[in-house]
Structure formats: structure tokens, C-alpha cells
Amino acid sequence: MELACSTLKEATELSGLFVKVKEVFASGDLPRVAEMLGMMRRSLALVGDVPEFKAGRGRLRALEDRLQGMVEGSLSQAGGDAAGSREEEDQYVAALAGLLLAVDRYSTVEALFLDTRLAFVHSLWEEACTSSEDVLVWLPRFYTRLVPVLDAESSWCLRVLPQQQQQLMTALAAAILQKISKATRERLLASRLPVAQLPLLSAEMAAFARSIMDVLPHELPGVARTQLLTSLFQPLEEMVSSYPAMELGELGSSLTTALAAVRASPTAESSAEHL
Question: Which residues form a coiled coil (predicted)?
């Protein structure tokens, strides 16, 4: 009986919220809207199986989508350069992100964060990888320029979205490494780096890996660290694995050239006549 009364009370309150939230949307009070949507989500978890509310989750999702549409444009514009942000801007971003987090839209916050950050990283990468310099020059220079950027972003996350810092920074580092992995592999294979220089390249990558780990939150799970390191070193590992086939091909080509030269020499012709 008590359970039935509690369910009836929740259902009554939920019906009222579905009506009231439209008025609050119209007033533009988005923090109140987010609060009400959170209440509605909790109520639906209790009474969602009641026939009257079978369509409740779909209605709630539509309301959450509406809130997201009203917030994400402003958040995208406000969440710019971490190094140049001011305290008022940080507070504004935290407030907007909080609205999305309140309705379980972390994925939207992460996507907007990555969009605004990766654009600058892309410009750094394009400037580096289009260089005609040796890979041992341009790749370490890119690493050197990227580390302070990651450090600034980590500090920004800790200041503005501390609860999401670990997730956001892990996602950013993974997105960057994924973005540059293919291009790094292609440039390394094209460079035909001498075997003797491979330890130098490996040392540069290892130094960059240590810098990344220092910048990322220390409580980062071991699995996430392993995945990031794998993404970083994969281009080098693939390059090293290609060397035996490359050397075998070069050896075969050298032998073919050498044999052709021997066959064409006067000594070879004289030997053939004696036979």
C-alpha cells in the first residue's frame, strides 16, 4: 500500500513537471530547466513502467535534446583557448557544461572540448609534418610544442571541470595520437631512416611519452596509459617490422645489379667462350 502511494505521488509530480518544464523553457531559465529534467529522469526510473508514462522516456529525451541545442552553440563559442581564458569565461563555460552534465550529456561536452582543441593541434601538426627536414628534426620539434599545449589544457580542465579532467584529457591525448599516427607512419616509411638512427627516434618518442604521462592526471587507469603508449609507438614498431623485408628487397636488387654487371664484363664473355 505504501509503495502504491509512493508511486502515485511520483506519477503526479512527474505529470506536473512535464507541464511546468515547458513554461520554464519559455522563460529561458536554463539552470532550472536542467534541474527539472534531472528530477524527471529520476522519477521516470521509478514510474517508467506505469502505462501513463510509457512514452515518458522519449518525451524526456526530446526535452534534453532541446536543452542541448540551446546550450552547445554557446558552449562551443565560449570554450576556446585554454591559455587565454579569463576567470569569468571559465565560470561561464563551467555553468554551460554543468547544464549538459546535469542531463547526462557528458559525451556532448567531450565532443565540443575536442573540436575546439584539436583545431589548434592540427595546425601544429600540419606545420611540422610538411617540413622537408629530417624526421629526427621535425617530429621532436612537434613533440616539444605539443607538451605545453597539453599541460595548459590539463590545468584548464582541473580549474573549470575538475570532475571530468581525467576523462577529457585522456580523450584529448587519444584523439591527438590517433590523428597523427597514420601520418607519422607514412612519413617514417617514406624517410627510410637508417637502422643506426632508430634508437634516436625511439628515445625521442620515449621522452615524449614521459611528458604526456606527467601532464595527464596521475590517477589515470593503467589500461588507458597502455592504450596511449601503444598508439604513440605503433608507427615506430611498424617501421621496424618493415625493415627485414626492405633490406631483403634491397639485397636482391643489389645482387641482380651485381650479377648483370658481371655477366656484361669482358671477363665473363671470355669465360663463356672457353666453355
Answer: none
